[in-house]
Amino acid sequence: MTIRIAATAQAVAQPGTKIIAIQPSAGPASIEGYADEAMAVPHMLEALFSEQAKDPSIAGYVIACFDDTGLDAARCILDAPVVGIGEAAFHLASLIAPRFSVVTTLSRSVSPIEHNLVKYGLGSRCARVRAAEVAVLDLEDAASNVYAHISNEIRTALIEDRAEAIVLGCAGMTDLAARLSQEHGVPVIDGVGAAVRLVESLAALGLKTSKRTTYAAPLSKSYEGTLPNFINENSGL
User: Fold this and answer.
1) Do 172 and 210 have their domain in common?
2) Hey, how many other C-beta atoms are within 10 angstroms of the C-beta on 10?
3) What residues make up the domain containing 130?
4) In terms of domains, do 210 and 156 share one?
5) pLDDT for 98-122, tens place per residue?
6) Is the dihedral of CA 10, 12, 13, 15 positive or negative?
7) What is the β-pairing status of strands 188-190 and 100-104?
8) Which of 116, 138, 149, 203 is deepest in the core (most CB within 10 A)?
9) Global pTM value
């Protein structure tokens, strides 16, 4: 899945933009619900901080999980802009349609996505968050017929929700957007491509995450467990 995400990112990127696709060395195989998110965040932050340490010139970062897992924390530890694919897709959808629906994987992901929509101020623009009831890892299984499930949910969203655009609610759907858009005759937005383009725009404008208060580096303090060096190396004190 990381390889497919990288391919999409590179395909939409401007000439000269280099995509570096990484994944944590530990954590859940997929993120489906709040518990998976919590278990994934420390390892994800460690991987991101490691990349920044290796190359401080990196222009921006994309978190390729539709729940925008660890997004606020990543903005605290990284200097360059960080964009989540859920956040990016919602904002782009709001620019091209008055109402959009989200089609995600499992029902357990609906509430976290709804929470994020309200957090980003876009709850009223989303007609509904729908689940196609396919597991994230099934998106890697050609025999699982996930495309049909997703397509059927889009068809229902266009009729019942009166949606005028569709947001795909999982990075594992990244290579389906163009085909689904052509089939249904409406914009279908993939968050990976949306986030890459937004990061490029922020970088081109010379904009970085504000470190004034909310996204300031972590305060210096003792940490127990596996990440004390990682946290304290990035401390504001």
Assistant:
1) no
2) 13
3) 99-190
4) no
5) 999 999 999 999 999 999 999 999 9
6) positive
7) unpaired
8) 116
9) 0.93
Same domain, 21 and 81: yes
Are residues 58 and 133 both part of a single domain?
no
**Domain holding 143: CATH number?**
3.40.50.12500
Domain count, the chain: 2
Same domain, 65 and 131: no
% of the chain surpassing 90 pLDDT:
88
- What CA–CA distance (Å, rounded) separates 134 from 125? 25
Tokens of 9: 């990112």
* Same domain, residue pair 30 and 78: yes
How far, in Å, CA of 13 to CA of 19, rounded? Answer: 8
Secondary structure of the chain in HEC code, one letter for each residue: CHHHHHHHHHHHCCCCCCCCCCCCCCCCCCCCCHHHHHHHHHHHHHHHHHHHHHCCCCCCEEECCCCCCCHHHHHHHCCCCEEEHHHHHHHHHHHHCCCEEEEECCHHHHHHHHHHHHHCCCCCCEEEEEECCCCHHHHHCHHHCHHHHHHHHHHHHHHHHCCCEEEEECHHHCCCHHHHHHHHCCCEEEHHHHHHHHHHHHHHCCCCCCCCCCCCCCCCCCCCCCCHHHHHHCCCC
